[in-house]
Amino acid sequence: MEFPQWVKDRVVARQGRLHPYDELPAARLAVVVVDMQQYFTLPGYQGECAPARGIIAPINRLCDAVRAAGGTIVWVQTASDNADSFWSHHHRVMLTPERSAKRLETLRRGSPGFALHPDLRAHDSDLRVVKRFYSAMAPGSSELEPLLRGRGVDTLLIAGTVTNVCCESTARDAMMRDFRSIMVDDALAAVTPAEHEHALHGWILFFGDVLSVDEATARLRPARPAEKAA
Question: What does the alpha-carbon distance between residue 112 and residue 225 come to, in Å, rounded to a whole number?
Fold first, then answer.
């Protein structure tokens, strides 16, 4: 992604360079793929983000490279079960009754909308995490943080959809929890290009790095046999 000069100038002024990580040790690295579910990727669903279908191939390529290098892959899925109770403000105030009912029905565990898009190359060895809120790192949302800590992961590559909602929310909270957090530009999708770009401008100004799939994989340092994730 090419950033405006004013963004680059402010980032360099703050941290001394545009991209802070020359090397990404795979043994301490996880790709966190957020919400690439049928509810968000297929036509006809209320939550459809049509551009997300265009990032399936880059996500597969990123995951294949990190997995082969000995890193961790995590597929994060949103579930709406009981969300009208534990997230009542969102469902009663921020959604119309019709949209609330549709979300509760079509994003619950076991529904077709909950499933990952069929073209994603998820492996049995990958981790699966179910979240309740936009951010997988929010208190009470999921078990993502303890799973990552338990594997010695301190660096995250964030991919998935929607860039400026669940992906950015998860990445920001991860940064606040002291993870090195990187948004992967061409493995993220928002409903419009403007939302995608604006989110990544704000992200790199204050929170973490932005790299492409090629830039991230070029920085990978394969894990030694003793370091590879179980």
Answer: 38
